[in-house]
Specification:
Length: about 100
Amino acid sequence: MSDFAAAIDRLLNQVRHWEERRWSQPATTTGQTRAQLIHGLAQQLADLGAEAEKSPRHELPLLHPMVLPDQLRVLADDILIAGPPPELLTRATTAVTEAHKTL
């Protein structure tokens, strides 16, 4: 298992059971809600996935917080399936790890 896959699994194991009230609480240092923080991470992963696939970037829609874990899973899988270079996986791992620390 890659460091990226392990990092995303750790994050998802923490947040996938959260209820809406928990998503609306502030993240520790950003001034954003937890949902906003994870939506930002999802956008970063979407951008990295587009880079890995050599396709255009697109803005992710704002989804209900309860589906954010599913969105992260799909975006992470897209990155892994694309077979990105190690440097891109390192950037993805760093983004996930930093978001996880901030929750």
